Amino acid sequence: MFSSSDDSLSSDSEVLEIPFISRYRAGVYECTASNDIAVDTQTVELTVNYPPSVSDGRDVGVTLGQRGVLQCEADAVPEADFEWYRDDRRIFNGFDGIEIEDSGALSKLTFYNVSEADYGNYTCVAINKLGSANTSIILYGKLQ
């Protein structure tokens, strides 16, 4: 007999069929076999792969000369890789004093000394083997 950890799926046979699988079905499933002599239980972790989806970008206002951080968050399995663009030009870590730091589902684009030339529209692209998604973020000037 199979059942999931939240008991929303079960089967009384040796097979658990999950039609129309979605990311929400990922998790730990338990299989229990029993007879008159003993009971044995095994657990299986089910991973569901899906393409990235990104949170809407939040525009950021920064005063000239200050530090500015643009953030991009993606939900994906396998975990997404990130790319940043200004207009159609890809930005790389260390480019024009910009630092890109990826940590799990979050990517940060940091400007340590914002100049007038830094203001504008930036695009974050999250990519895995199943697809990609993007969001735009505007870095704009803010008065002190």
From TrEMBL:
It comes from the Eukaryota. Gene3D superfamilies: Immunoglobulins. Residues 52-136 form the Ig-like domain. InterPro entries: Ig-like_dom (IPR007110), Ig-like_dom_sf (IPR036179), Ig-like_fold (IPR013783), Ig_I-set (IPR013098), Ig_sub (IPR003599), Ig_sub2 (IPR003598), IgLON_domain (IPR050876). Pfam families: I-set. This is Ig-like domain-containing protein. It comes from Labeo rohita (Indian major carp).
